[in-house]
């Protein structure tokens, strides 16, 4: 049984009309290396003929961004020539390395039709030896991400980065971390194991870590 050392409440920090909660950094938690930043956008519903996400072209360097699309979609375009539209359940992985400019906006279809939107974005600090690595981007739809059924099928573990009990995840990060999204059915549980420190971010007030 793991013991939770501290609980931190995300701070509300909207960006234009985008509902945003920021668990990291916050007044009570600045960073936990290699985790630099975590934003939870939404959940909210956009009306038809909306402006979509407000993240036009902007630079990153010396870090990696991992974007989890829970609802809606994201259209990515960057200075390295990478483009994709990733829908609900998918993940975008970008290694900024020595520098990259990218935009994260909603697809033309989402702007026209509207719909639910919920997104998590995590920033990972690159080790010093990888700060100037070549930029990289890859977006995966939900069907391309390995998953495991646990607790008699009541838990779905989506393997985003690293490995879990010998099974490789979708991405192999330059930092020694394991990242996953976990979907629970009522009454289900998920063993974190005891080999590493663990950070759990819940997107629902009805779910919890203990």
From TrEMBL:
InterPro entries: Pirin, Pirin_N_dom, QDO-related, RmlC-like_jellyroll, RmlC_Cupin_sf. Coiled coil: none annotated. Its EC number is 1.13.11.24. Keywords: Dioxygenase, Iron, Metal-binding, Oxidoreductase. Binds 1 Fe cation per subunit. It comes from the Bacteria. It is an enzyme of class 1 (oxidoreductase). Its cofactor is Fe cation. The keyword Nucleotide-binding does not apply. This is Quercetin 2,3-dioxygenase. It comes from Cesiribacter andamanensis AMV16.
């Amino acid at each position: 049984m793991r013991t939770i050392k501290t609980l931190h409440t995300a701070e509300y920090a909207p960006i234009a009309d985008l509902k945003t909660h920021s668990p990291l950094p916050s007044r009570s938690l600045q960073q936990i290396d290699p985790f630099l930043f975590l934003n939870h956008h939404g959940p909210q519903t956009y009306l038809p003929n909306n402006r979509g996400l407000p993240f036009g072209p902007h630079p990153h360097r010396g870090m990696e961004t991992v974007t989890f699309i829970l609802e809606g979609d994201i259209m990515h375009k960057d200075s390295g020539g990478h483009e994709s539209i990733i829908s609900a359940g998918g993940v975008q992985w970008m290694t900024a390395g020595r520098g990259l400019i990218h935009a994260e906006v909603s697809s033309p279809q989402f702007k026209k039709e509207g719909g639910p939107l919920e997104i998590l974005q995590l920033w990972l600090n690159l080790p010093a030896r990888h700060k100037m690595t070549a930029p990289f981007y890859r977006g995966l739809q939900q069907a391309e991400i390995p998953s495991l059924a646990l607790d008699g099928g009541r838990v779905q573990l989506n393997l985003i980065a690293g490995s879990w009990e010998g099974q490789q995840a979708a991405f192999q990060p330059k930092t020694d971390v394991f990242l996953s999204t976990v979907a629970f059915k009522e009454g289900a549980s998920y063993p974190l194991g005891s080999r590493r420190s663990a950070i759990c971010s819940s997107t629902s007030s009805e779910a919890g870590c203990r």
